[in-house]
Sequence to fold (286 residues):
Amino acid sequence: MALEDALARELLEAHPDAAAAVLERLPVGEVAALLDAAPAEVVAAVLRHMATPSAVACLGRLAPERGAAALAALPLDTAAVLVRRLEREAQEPLLAALPPAAAAPLAALLRYPERTAGAVMDPRVLALPEDLSVEEALAHVQRTPQHVLYYLYVVGRARGLVGVLNLRELMLAHAAAPLGAVMRSATARLGVRDGLQAVVAHPGWRGLHALPVVDEAGVFVGAVRYETMRRLAADADRPPRIEGPLGTLLGLGELCWIGLAGVVEQLASARARPAPGGSAEERRDR
Fold:
């Protein structure tokens, strides 16, 4: 089955959205067996394009280590949505299998109600004390560039949000100056319990690539990325089904895809079918 394996993986990697639509029609056990053999990044891409109930069902059938690897490859807010919907007995081993670097930020999102700014923010965004020098701040940025979202947020020693700089402003500032002397006031912000409609409609998006999130006491807890806001807006405003000639044309395209997707269906069924010597799950456990 080497050729079928390679072809199925290619289809999953190149067309995760279409593959997800096909796999949703199959029994969850067959889908889980197929995804169990795919790389974590491919599993994450397919789960991201599945309807949430189908994605949750598949995630719950994967071995905790495999499910945890897929969660770590998903956008943080998407991972939180899926974990929230798992049964507790499936949640606990999955979270326990996550590495600390992925478990801690995910736990931060799960503390807040679903469909709020706190549930979709990135809690790993860098924020530094206002009495730190520009030189020290640049050293922090260089050590953790993946946690800098266009801006450096500035906080008081009690973690209250007091200001912001973009990276250009930070690099041009005098090295010995404290951040509090070169920052701008961070007037645009989201409350941690603001609903998603308020997040999407916030006027700050007209000129900013990210918005800081604060709790009820004004303490900085994270930031929402512009890309996250766009995804939320797209999910809330999906276009209606297209009718007429264009809809027919798209339907023909779907039929072409279904011909290719038959390979995926057949491979999923074959992987889920017990082989001589026991089931796929039993052989993995040996």
In short: The CA atoms of residues 83 and 91 lie 6 Å apart. Residues 240-260, 279-286 have pLDDT under 50 and may be disordered.
